Amino acid sequence: MCEVWTSPGDQLGVKIFREEAFVWVDREEQNRAWWAVFMLDCVSRVGYPRDSSILEVPCPDIRLPSDTSAWDEGLMPSKNLTILQPRSNQDLGPFATMAEATRLLSRVLEHISAKDVNEQLQ
Fold first, then answer.
1. What is its main location (predicted)?
2. How many domains does the chain have?
């Protein structure tokens, strides 16, 4: 018997968009919307503990949101930063910094909710 499990985020259609959008604005809007939902989900887990997130945990190669000032001015970023990419703090805007901090918080929450010590040490 094969069982299929999907997260509530998948059921709602909230997922990391890996396919390329038509223009960078659409791609950035999708990326920012996903990060905003991820942040809200993660912060809500602090106040109302539950075992898992409604969204998939972002992998290290996911794109961070572009610089906020460039986004507000409609300027396409010169490069797409990922979580593990080496960079200076000046390369990140406030929204991307919060996204990165929230991802770290999600990892902490995963470790706290782990039932087995070796379960989350991946």
1. nucleus
2. 1
